[in-house]
């Protein structure tokens, strides 16, 4: 059975599950709250009017990178393997005419597709939120300017690359633990520790922590370290996936 068939099988499993709702609702949460509950002063709105697309999307990208995407990855990397654990379906999956490599890769690629979908939806919802501000709260002259699509794509690409390491490690946790709470708890604690190291204590080596990459990459202070963080994220991801696959192969996930 080819990898594409295995991937299609994994995607079909996600239908009528909470994974799709989590992706859409999670991506919409902050843009909707910003539109309806953000009481910006007229001065702030006047500043926003100077370059609304850039300013609004920049703030949205920081919220996505610092908070929403790490939390989403922790949840999605736990919930996807839980489909097998919860239904006692691992034995059935492992005895199907698929190689272990295809099963492993298909699950990881499914998670990556959900992460990419979350980033794209968050951006679209943020743009829709800005349109809501323009029509219902303050005339921002949006149609006198155009979104900088190249900058949007570059920013989103950077955000995605910074979370590769976290997705690899959390995927390993999701496969390794039958309990839902263990990988979520570990991931949340590591994320909080990374945030405290970077934001609270300003630890000089915080930029080497996988969970801190997405926290730091969009801030000008760390601009010079972004290329190294991106390569480090990719390297960490390869290492974590290699270790995860070796354990997956040895244990064969005995459920």
Order of helices and strands: HHHHHHHHHHH
Number of helices: 11
- First-to-last CA distance: 23 Å
Cα gyration radius (Å): 20 Å
Structural class: mainly alpha
Percent of residues in β-strands? under 5%
Number of domains: 1
The tally of beta strands, per DSSP, is: 0
Low-confidence segments, given as residue ranges, are: none
Overall outline: globular
| Average pLDDT figure | 88
| Helical coverage, percent range | over 70%
Largest sheet: none
Describe it.
It is globular and about 60 Å long. The mean pLDDT is 88. With 255 residues, it is mainly alpha-helical. It has one domain. Helix 1 packs across helix 6 (100-136), helix 2 (18-37) runs antiparallel to helix 4 (52-87) and helix 8 (164-176) packs parallel to helix 11 (226-251). The protein is built from eleven helices and no strands. 76% of the residues lie in helices and 0% in strands.
Secondary-structure map with pairings?
Blueprint: H1 3-13, H2 18-37, H3 42-50, H4 52-87, H5 90-94, H6 100-136, H7 149-162, H8 164-176, H9 181-200, H10 213-216, H11 226-251
């Amino acid at each position: 059975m080819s990898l594409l068939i295995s991937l299609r099988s994994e995607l079909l499993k996600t239908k009528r599950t909470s994974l799709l709702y989590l992706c859409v609702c999670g991506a919409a949460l902050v843009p909707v709250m910003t539109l309806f509950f953000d009481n910006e002063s007229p001065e702030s709105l006047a500043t926003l009017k100077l370059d609304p697309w850039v300013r609004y999307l920049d703030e949205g990208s920081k919220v996505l990178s610092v908070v929403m995407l790490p939390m989403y990855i922790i949840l999605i990397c736990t919930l996807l393997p839980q489909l097998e654990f919860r239904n006692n379906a691992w034995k059935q999956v492992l005895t199907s005419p698929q190689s272990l490599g295809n099963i492993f890769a298909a699950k990881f690629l499914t998670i990556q597709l959900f992460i990419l979908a979350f980033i794209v939806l968050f951006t679209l919802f943020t743009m829709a939120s800005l349109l809501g501000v323009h029509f219902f709260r303050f005339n921002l002259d949006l149609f006198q300017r155009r979104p900088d699509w190249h900058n949007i794509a570059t920013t989103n690409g950077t955000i995605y690359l910074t979370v590769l390491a976290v997705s690899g490690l959390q995927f390993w946790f999701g496969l390794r633990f039958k309990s839902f709470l263990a990988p979520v708890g570990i991931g949340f604690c590591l994320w909080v520790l990374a945030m405290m190291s970077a934001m609270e204590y300003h630890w000089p080596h915080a930029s080497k922590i996988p969970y801190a990459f997405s926290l730091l990459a969009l801030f000008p202070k760390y601009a010079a370290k972004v290329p190294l963080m991106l390569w480090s994220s990719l390297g960490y991801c390869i290492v974590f996936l290699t270790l995860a696959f070796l354990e997956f192969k040895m244990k064969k996930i005995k459920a």
